[in-house]
Amino acid sequence: MTRPASFKYFKTSPEIIRLAVMLYIRFPLSLRNVEDLLHERGIDESHETVRYWWNRFGPVFATEIPRKRVQQLRAFSKWKWHVDEVFVKVNGKRHYLWRAVDHEGEVLEAVVTKRRNKAAALKFLKKLMKRHGKAEEVVTDRFASYKAALRDLGALEKQMTGRLLNNRVENSHLPFRRRERAMQRFRRKRSLQKFASVHSSLYNHFNQERSLASRDTFKLTRAAALSEWRQLCSG
Q1: Could you say which DSSP state residue 12 is in?
Q2: pTM recorded for the entire structure
Q3: Is residue 130 a part of any domain in this protein?
Q4: Beta carbons of 51 and 57 less than 8 angstroms apart
Q5: pLDDT reading at 96 higher than 90
Q6: Residues contacting residue 14 through CB under 8 Å, at least 6 positions apart
Q7: In terms of residue numbers, what domain contains 96?
Q8: How far is Cα 140 from Cα 146, in angstroms, rounded to an integer?
Q9: Most exposed residue of 99, 120, 190, 215, measured as fewest CB within 10 angstroms of its CB?
């Protein structure tokens, strides 16, 4: 279990640390880009300091996102899941990032594996179901390992496949792909898993579905999300 963040021995204010972590994870910026943005605001910190902050506080901030919102998400996330996987290069070797989103685009789970087979699909689906229960529908592509894994889990009748049905999760890969390019790939499987999990939590927190809401509603929800972020670990 991740311990609450402590800023006790840091000379830099918590507000600056939260800002730096948010800029790096939420937007497709490199560590040096974040350093330049902070410098523009009169904050002189090196990119290595920003790296340390995100490694130290990123996972903590991600787990401290209000639990009320997580409980509300669970209530709606059991209707339909969209599941897909993409390949990611880790130190020159191909790995696979398995991701599941609900019908509103909220990222439910992200798991990294070395192989793309039935065992990997089963591992991913078991972790997903352990955390979120069982969905009424599971939308996948025609990759045979999904069918085999769902059969072992007794949920084969819930699988749905078809052309364009999985656009929801395929589009949700795009923010992560932009971050991957900015970071110039990953060097370790562990760092990929860590970043994918933290990025998913922050993406969910700031994802306002602006195309489905009026401008006034979007501004209110965006301001509320930013206010909640600034209060993370403030106690």
Answers
A1: S
A2: 0.84
A3: yes
A4: no
A5: yes
A6: 7, 233, 234
A7: 69-197
A8: 7
A9: 215
Q: Which two tokens stand for residue 33?
A: 């880009």
| Sheet bearing 137-139, strands edge to edge | 107-113, 93-102, 80-90, 137-139, 159-160
CATH code of the domain covering residue 175: 3.30.420.10
57 closest CA partner among 18, 28, 1: 18
Q: Would 11 be classed as within a structural domain?
A: no
Q: Is residue 5 part of a domain?
A: no
- Tokens linked to 231: 């209060």
**Tens digits of per-residue pLDDT, 76-88?**
567 889 999 999 9
Q: How far, CA to CA in Å, does 143 sit from each of 100, 103, 136, 160, 162?
A: 15, 20, 20, 12, 11
What pLDDT, in 10s, does the model give residues 57-66?
A: 999 888 887 5
Residue 22 lies in a domain: no
Q: How many angstroms separate the CA atoms of 116 and 121, rounded?
A: 7
Q: Are 97 and 175 in contact (CB under 8 A)?
A: no
How far apart, in whole angstroms, are the C-alpha atoms of residue 135 and residue 77? 7
